Amino acid sequence: MRSTARTIGILLIVIGAVGVIWGGVTFIKDRDVTEIGPIEIVTEEKEHIPISPILGVVALIAGGVLVGVTSRRNPNLTT
Fold first, then answer.
1. Could you tell me the pTM of the whole model?
2. Structural domains in the chain (count)
3. Could you list the residue range(s) of the whole structural domain that residue 58 is in?
4. Which of 38, 48, 59, 70 has the fewest Cβ atoms surrounding its Cβ within 10 A?
């Protein structure tokens, strides 16, 4: 359980950092337009997934809390 929460915390920190620093993720997606015999026409489309800076800060804080809480040693928890 602790390793899962820690992994989610690290993922939230990464997503939050991307949201705060770059404002989202941009990637290029290939799309087949048509195929005529041996000739294939492909277009590239830029896709952008925006991440609000406010949500980025919230994700950074939540990830930090998850990593901080899971790093504390609690004798009642087993790994």
1. 0.66
2. 1
3. 2-71
4. 38
